[in-house]
Each structure stands twice: as C-alpha cells, then as structure tokens.
Design goal:
alpha/beta; Rossmann fold; 10 helices; about 40% helix; binds zinc ion
Length: about 325
C-alpha cells in the first residue's frame, strides 16, 4: 500500500502510545485501514468514495491505459497478493488478466463488481453469444449498481464499518443520479437526426442506449480486434450520406483509425472534424476533476452534446471541467 500522510500519522500515534505505555504495540492494530486494489480507475474511484479514510486504494490501470489489453506487472501481482480485497470489473473487460484473477480468487478475497449486475440490464456482445459488453460505466444509472456492489464488498469485509460505508455510498449514489439526469438533459437537446456517435472503438453502446444515440465504433467492443479497411470505408459512407460533422478520439485508444476516417471523408468532399477526446476506458489525469468518475462522464457528455449541436454549459454539470473542453 502507498504510504500516505494519514497512515504515517497513525503509525506515529501508535508508536507514541506504545512508548507511553512502555511496551510494544503493533502499529495500526486498532484502526488498520482496508487495503484495496482495483483494476480500473473507475472502480478505484467508487472504492475511495465509499471507503473514505478507512481505505487505501490503489488502481492498477492509470489514465490512458487500455483495460482490454492490459497485463498485470510484477508490482501489480505483489500488490494484489498483499491487498485485503481485490476489486475487478469482470464481463471480460480485463481479458488478459482474467486467468490470473480467477486463480487469485481461490486464495484471496477477489470480487468482480460488474458481474453483480442483473444480466437483463446488459447489452450482448456482438461476436459472442455468451458474453456481454463490459462498458457499463458509460451509463450512470447502470454504474450505480456497480457502486452498490463495491459497497457490499467492503461491508462484507469490514461489517463494523457498515454504517460509514453505507452513508458514503448513499451520498455518492445521489451524485451519480444527478449526473445521470444532467446527461439525459443535455443529450436531449441534440437534434434527433444528429445523435450519431462515431468513436475509435465500441465503448459507448450503454451511453447510446440510455440517451437515444446511434453509436458506431471503428473497432469492436474490444480493442484487440483490428479495424479492417472495409469497416473504415463503411463508416466513411455513413459520415458522407448522413452528413455527420464530428467524430471522436479516445484517450486510451490510438487515433490512427479516426484520422483515416476523416481523410476518407475528405477525399469525398465531406469535411469532418474531431469533436474532441473522450475518456472511454480510463479516466482523465490523476488529481483532476476528469480523473474522477463524475468528471469523466461529465466531460464526455458535455463534449458530445456541444460538438453535435446540443446545448450544454462549457464547463459542464458543476462548472468544474477544464477550460477548453
Ligand atoms: Zn473498451
């Protein structure tokens, strides 16, 4: 676990009281915080919101990291085997880590939080009948089920903190509900025939389903599949025929294919601009508003609404988005 100001303070206090009582007491014994390792930044954010100062959370995948292709490092393995609990997404998001996490689950407390969502709320995967689209964070209404699963996992681990975790979860769920409402309001201001979202990979189907958008990714649900030239040609047709003026790049996926799309449209005399960079599978910079779940989704929805001719405040739901978003 990272050493924080708080754990240092607690260690210091324990040492002081041990010195006062004149005998050794193990540091942090009474008030040990829960060591949480989360695979994605979004899950880590939920754990921090709910756990407050009673958890030490470490996210394995930082800003710009693609979860579909991420493999655990030696440092990650060490952190996971030392953690009190490992929270991962599931639904085949962490495709390269799945075998490791399943095996670790036989020995340690390991919870796949998105797997707790009811199956009927999920969108089926294009290519596999028995798999689902993992990008559930794109719909705050659905994500609230994951927040509840994180709360339940923490309560299960530390029942004595149930009230504390429960109250924090309730406060965060209210923020997520407000976000859900904001996203619905600003996307509804986009003309229905302009609600077409073209992105680098298919991460936005839940966003589309919740807000009445047609969503087209150049790559499929996983970034592991290569986009073929025929897929790019097909999407160029759509851009030209439907007069779509903006497409989006993603922070965790190369923009190569999106640029090929813009060039393809330009060759046919149709100008397409980049509507901006969306946070698809990873949050924004650490320490920024966009580096939180609320900020990530606020950024995406505000950017999309403004680029497609909708009405949304420049700095987003709470006036907290970085200028120039
Ligand atoms: Zn993805």
């Amino acid at each position: 676990m990272p050493i924080t100001r708080r754990s240092l303070l607690a260690t210091g206090l324990a040492a002081a009281s041990a010195a006062a009582s004149g005998r050794f007491r193990p540091a942090l014994a009474a008030e040990a915080s829960v060591g949480v390792v989360a695979t994605t930044g979004m899950i880590a954010d939920a754990a921090r919101q709910i756990g407050g100062d009673r958890v030490e959370v470490r996210a394995l995948m930082g800003p710009g990291v693609d979860p579909h292709s991420y493999r655990q490092t030696r440092t990650d393995i060490l952190a996971m085997t030392r953690a009190d609990i490992v929270l991962w997404h599931g639904l085949y998001l962490e495709a390269q880590m799945e075998a490791f996490l399943t095996e670790l689950g036989g020995k340690r407390r390991v919870v796949a939080v998105a797997e707790q969502l009811p199956r009927e709320a999920l969108i089926h995967h294009d290519s596999y009948a028995d798999k689902f689209d993992p990008h559930v964070w794109m719909d705050p209404g659905l994500w609230s089920g994951v927040v509840a699963a994180v709360r339940d996992a923490l309560v299960d681990l530390r029942p004595e903190s149930a009230d504390f975790f429960g109250a924090n979860a309730e406060a965060h769920l209210a923020e997520v509900a407000a976000l859900d409402e904001y996203v619905a309001t600003i996307t509804a201001s986009i003309a229905p025939d302009r609600r077409v979202l073209v992105t680098a990979h298919d991460a936005f189907k839940y966003f589309g389903a919740a807000n009445d958008f047609e969503v087209m990714g150049i790559q499929g649900i996983s970034t592991e599949s290569e986009a073929g030239l025929s897929r790019i040609a097909e999407l160029v047709d759509v851009l030209v025929e439907r007069d779509i003026g903006a497409v989006f790049v993603e922070s965790s996926v190369s923009d190569r294919n999106v640029r090929a799309l813009i060039e393809g449209a330009a060759a046919r005399g149709h100008e397409v601009s980049i509507g901006g960079q969306l946070y698809s599978d990873a949050m924004g910079p650490e320490g920024s508003y966009e580096g939180t779940y609320l900020g990530m989704i606020d950024h995406n929805a505000t950017l999309i609404a403004r680029a497609l001719g909708g009405d949304a405040p420049e700095r987003g739901m709470q006036g907290l988005l970085a200028a120039g978003t």
